[in-house]
Design goal:
The chain is α+β, with helices and mostly antiparallel strands. It has one helix spanning about 20-25; strands spanning about 1-5, 10-15, 35.
């Protein structure tokens, strides 16, 4: 999963099941922090 977060406000802007390039195209906002998650550990 790709998590897009606003580094200034600390808000999560999107949680997407897409690759980074696709995620940025989908949101279209520059300056977001990109985080990755492989899910919740078992």
């Amino acid at each position: 999963m790709t998590i897009l977060r606003d580094p200034v406000a600390g808000q999560v802007r999107a949680i997407l099941r897409r690759r980074v390039a696709e995620a940025m195209d989908a949101v279209g906002e520059p300056g977001l922090e990109i985080l990755f998650s492989r899910g919740i550990p078992e």
